[in-house]
Structure formats: C-alpha cells, structure tokens
Amino acid sequence: MTNERVPTRRRVARATRAGGPEVLAIAVEDLRPPTVGEALVRVEAAGLNHVDSLARSGTYSIRFAFPFDVGVEGAGTVVAAGPGVAVPPGTRVCWTAVVGSCATYVIAPVQMLAELPEGVSVEAGASLAHAGITAAGLIRHCPIPEGQSAVVWGAAGAVGRLLVAFLAARGVPVIGIASGARTNAARAAGAAHVVDRSIDDVVENVRRHTGGRGASAVFDPVGAATYETSLRLLAPRGCLVNYGQLSGALPHVDLGRLMEAGSIFVTKYGPRAGLVRPEHVATFISEALALATTRPLVGDAAARFPLNRVADAYRALDSGVPGKVLVLPHGAPDSAHGARDSRGSQTRSLPLGSQSCIGLPSGSESLAKRPFG
C-alpha cells in the first residue's frame, strides 16, 4: 500500500438512534489503513436506498446496534489498497452492501468493488449497483427458459429497467408495464412490448402479447394494488415473484385461488434467498454495468445533496421522489463538522450470505407515493 496522499480521517453520516432523518449526524473518525483484501476509496457519490431508511427506523429484518454509519451504495476512486490487492490507486469503482458508504471515504472488501467501464460516470455507478444486484438475484430466483415470456411491473424504475435488460439479454421476451412517457424507458431497456397501465387494459394486453396463454413469470415490486391483476397475467403453472410492497403488504395467499388460476406459484423474493454472496457482488454489478454501456438503463438523478445535508437527502428519498437521490460527499463544503470519533473506521458489509436482495422496498408507508413505473 502506498502512503502518498492517503487520508487519515473521514466524515460519515451516522444514525444516532432509531427514528427518521432527524436522527442523522455527521461524525469525524480516524481511518485505519486497508488490510489484506481491502481498498480505501474516495466516495464521489453515495446512492440512497430505502433499505437505509428501514434500517435506521429499526424495522428492517437485519437490526443494527445504534449508533451505526448509514448508506450501503456508492461509487468513487480507489486511493490505496491493502497488501496483495491488485486494484491500483486511481481505479474508478462502484459497490453496494458496504455499510457506512454515505461518507467521504470508505474501506471496502475488494470483492465487493466493480470497476466502472469507460463512459459510465460515478453517479451512474452509484445509481446502478444496488438495483443491479437486486435484478441479478431476481433472474436467478426464478429462471425463465429462453423464448418464454415475462411481465415486469415498474419496468421504467431502477430495478425494472435492469430486470428487463437482464431478461432480454437471455432471450426472454419481456412485457414491460409502465405509465405515460415512462414506457419509452422500458422499451429502450429491451422490452419486446410495453403496456401503459394508465390507459391500457393490462390483462387484455398481456394476454394478446402472449397469444392468450399468459406469461411464465410476473415480477412485481408493487404488492397489494397489483396482486390480483398479476395472478390473471400468468400462464398455467406460472410464477408471480413479488419483491416489494410499494402499495402495501400482500393479501393472504389463498391456495384454492392459485389452483383455480392454473396451479400457479407465488413467491416473495427477499433477504433469505441466499442467491447473492459477497464473492458474487462485483461480478453481478459488472454484468449490469456492461448492459448499461449498450442501452439507457440509468435515469436522471432526482436530487443531489452535499454530505452536511444528508438528512434532507433522506427526506427527499422518503417523500417518494421519482429517480435516484445522491449524496456527493466532496461536492460542496460541509458546514457541519461533527465531533471527532475515536472508534476508527471499520469495514462492515451486509451479510450477503443470507441477503439476496438487500434494500428492497417493503413496509414503508411513504413508498406508496412512488410511481409504479
């Protein structure tokens, strides 16, 4: 590891107790040198996710002891690396599942870092990594043979676009559901057909595009509002994969109803699927990045905030703004310096061995305000 111009302290957003954005503070702590298998990265952009709000509120399936450093997703430039690490300083990378990413610097396991391709910005990397991991897990949770069709609700959203692209790249004809002008994003991501849910009859159009049979799989982050419709979109023995509840929790699953609909399956993809392990993270993100160089998969950022306004950034996220909310730790002077923390930096990552889709929206009332695609 080189010691030239290597920072010795960082500023980091920290949740001091369970609650809303008001519990966040900026702390200053010492940075230890990276060890074997680690890299020190200057965070150029941190992407905010609903998992952050759920963890901060104390309602997420994984509980953190307070205080804890917030943020799991980001992108930036490697400053230094531990012994034996082959990633050179100056390499642009992005990541997810690294706790404490909403900071000026982060020490991350190298196996969690994906190199940004030429032409992909750090903001795009910080907007794509988390969604890419989620989409990669979903296509592995419900593999679909080439030629069989799939429906993607919210096809213009961050996960939706990548899910459409992953499926299309595997020879699966995708019917993307979005609304209004956002249908263009679904089509550009690779959807063979698009349905404008604001004006079209979703069931009628899906049946028409599948020759009356229905789809082999339906991927749905919406939940309660679309559940009954989703069941009607499936072919016999098709599978509904729910991965969020933007409109509220799913109703009780009636097995008799599933039998009558064609002996269909319903599954909720979530943290215990175990499909994405730490050693998979960089590879899965790199797959998403490669697709992003061939088609428009990253939308415009909804808002950008400096680190000292991190509470406002999370308020924007929780309000349901469409698009990615970013924190730019070096983008503007910080007016809140915080108190020095003597604990020193620690590498923490979400336990991906049991976390297949970290940060999927579930159970937050504020999410009901978000567009479904």
In terms of topology, how is this protein built?
Blueprint: E1 9-15, E2 24-30, E3 38-47, H1 50-57, E4 68-69, E5 73-81, E6 92-95, E7 98-99, E8 105-109, E9 114-115, H2 122-141, E10 150-153, H3 158-169, E11 174-178, H4 183-189, E12 193-196, H5 202-209, E13 215-220, H6 227-232, E14 234-242, H7 255-260, E15 265-268, H8 278-292, E16 301-306, H9 310-319, E17 324-328, E18 340-341, E19 348-349
Parallel strand pairs: 2-18, 10-11, 10-13, 11-12, 13-14, 14-15, 16-17
Antiparallel strand pairs: 1-2, 1-4, 3-5, 3-8, 3-17, 5-6, 6-9, 7-19
Helix pairs in contact: 2-3, 2-8
Care to describe what's here?
The chain has helices spanning 50-57, 122-141, 158-169, 183-189, 202-209, 227-232, 255-260, 278-292, 310-319, and strands at residues 9-15, 24-30, 38-47, 68-69, 73-81, 92-95, 98-99, 105-109, 114-115, 150-153, 174-178, 193-196, 215-220, 234-242, 265-268, 301-306, 324-328, 340-341, 348-349. With 373 residues, it is α/β, with parallel strands linked by helices. The protein has two domains: 9-131 and 274-365, Quinone Oxidoreductase, Chain A, domain 1, CATH 3.90.180.10; 143-268, 3-Layer(aba) Sandwich (Rossmann fold). The strands form four sheets. Strands 3, 5, 6, 8, 9, 16 and 17 form a seven-stranded mixed beta sheet that branches. Strand 11, helix 4 and strand 12 form a beta-alpha-beta unit. The longest helix is centred in the middle third of the chain and has 20 residues, at 122-141. The chain is globular, with a radius of gyration of 21 Å. Mean pLDDT is 88; it is low at 333-343 and 351-373.
